[in-house]
Design brief:
- By secondary structure, this protein is mainly alpha-helical.
- It contains 2 helices and 2 strands, in the order ααββ.
- It is 52% helix and 6% strand.
- It has a two-stranded antiparallel sheet.
- The protein is rod-shaped.
- 0% of the residues are buried.
- The model has no long low-confidence stretch (mean pLDDT 83).
Length: 65
């Protein structure tokens, strides 16, 4: 796939490298500006259980000896 893209880019090697860099930066921009914010509410990052069954008192984990 990358060879196909490289062969179809215009110009010499330096121009192809520059266009490739711009394409990668454009893809990263689209991911961070549109795709990740759209997908973030769909991901379960806020469904965390960390207490391991330990009793909690006053917002602090109680030490069981």
């Amino acid at each position: 796939m990358y060879v196909w893209i490289w062969r179809h880019l215009p110009g010499n090697a330096w121009a192809k490298a520059l266009v490739s860099l711009l394409l990668v930066l454009g893809g990263v921009y689209v991911l961070f500006q549109y795709v990740f914010p759209w997908a973030e509410p769909l991901l379960p990052f806020n469904d965390v259980t960390v207490d391991n069954g330990m009793p909690v008192s006053n917002g602090m984990v109680a030490v069981v000896r």
